[in-house]
Design a protein that fits this description.
6-stranded antiparallel beta sheet, 6 strands, about 0% helix, globular
Length: about 60
């Protein structure tokens, strides 16, 4: 199952799929930056730094229990 969500620096998780420039990018890693910002590392190796007020549309895969 998938869930369409809005993520921020506080809520983004590894495995989230974020649509950027028409490409689906899966978050592989996260690094905390000053003032609550985060740097996202995508499976493609690309990086994206997001501010605490940045909001992005994402898809999160939900695990079955």
């Amino acid at each position: 199952m998938v869930s369409h969500i809005e993520v921020t620096a506080a809520t983004v998780q590894r495995g989230d799929i974020i649509q950027l420039g028409g490409h689906a990018c899966r978050v592989r890693g996260l690094f905390q930056l000053p003032e609550g910002a985060k740097q996202l590392v995508f499976e493609s190796g690309e990086l994206l730094a997001i501010h605490t007020r940045t909001r992005l549309a994402a898809v999160r895969l939900l695990r079955r229990r």
